[in-house]
Amino acid sequence: MREALKLAELGLGSVSPNPMVGCVIVRNDRIVGRGHHRRYGECHAEVAAIADAGRRARGATMYVTLQPCNHFGKTPPCTDAVIRSGVKQVVIAARDTNPKTMCDAGLLRIRAAGIRVKTGVCEQEARRQNEVYFHNLEYQRPFVALKLAATLDGMIADARGRSKWITGPEARARVQLLRAKYDAVLVGAGTVQADNPRLTCRMPGKRHPVRVVLDHSLGISPRFRLLSCPGRTIIFCSERVPVRKRQRLISDKVEVIPVKSGTVPVSFRETRGCPKSFRGLSPFQCRRSWHEVLAALDERRIASVLVEGGAQVAASALKARVVSKLYLFLAPRILGSGVSFSAGLGAVDLNQAIPLSEWQTESVGSDLLVSGYPQED
Which of 111, 138, 157, 186 could pair with 163 in a Cys bridge, judged by C-beta atoms 3.0 to 4.6 Å apart? Predict the structure, then answer.
């Protein structure tokens, strides 16, 4: 099963909104077939492994990281291929809770064909591997991850707003892997204006994420690089922005979406360049506007979002409790003053702190990566 989990990872960044799935077929204690879901719309892992095994699949045991589907989608039901293959046993890591896949009926069909079924082997690892997929099923909105690069005292930029480079080259390379993993990368207009980033994935063979910009007044202009880079860009602005101003940016690659509530998610203490109507947002207003943004992305089949900053957007997302996972790259240096990513949270005592569960640490070059899951209220 652990070999199947490794195979599933090969589909990272290519199969969304489908889950990553790996499959291994074993006969006489030898692996005779391997397969994984390579790309959205292509054959699933079970079918690929059966094709690799050929006749050797008969009488063998299949290990698959997610329950075989039992419906017609982009491909025929995997249960049909499993039954035809002649395997004698199917070992499944995680059950699929998507009602569209008709998995309960699929298990009944497999068992009715005389094939033994065992579930729950390495289940926790399999569910974490596809945490985006299971999150989408449960909450019906994209999975949001927040990435931050900071000094040991929590500064993501110096007093002049400069952030290049807080962390080392290894940490920046890891960010490219994160961009390959998530469907979209999201920033605020301030980050675009200050850094003029491309927000592309520079890993060979990996797709570019959809670029998402929160720009309440639509101050972004065509001169910024992300509007001309490969891939799609989605800009959220206030519905108060004139239609003519929106239309100037709209193209085959750029979509402008007005937020009905009149606000886009910004920092609770944002003042610079922000109208009074956007300042001091209440938690309800901030959460409401974030959910509008996420609902619009969900409608466009964007299953996961990597929030890359800046401080205002980061604090707003944390305050609204929409962040499901945090990646914090810590550089071994102390700045003393600068831009803090947590200043906008407004906590006054430890009871208001946001705890992390299942947190882990990892050395990435000279930096430290702390990752975990912010707990809900």
Answer: 157
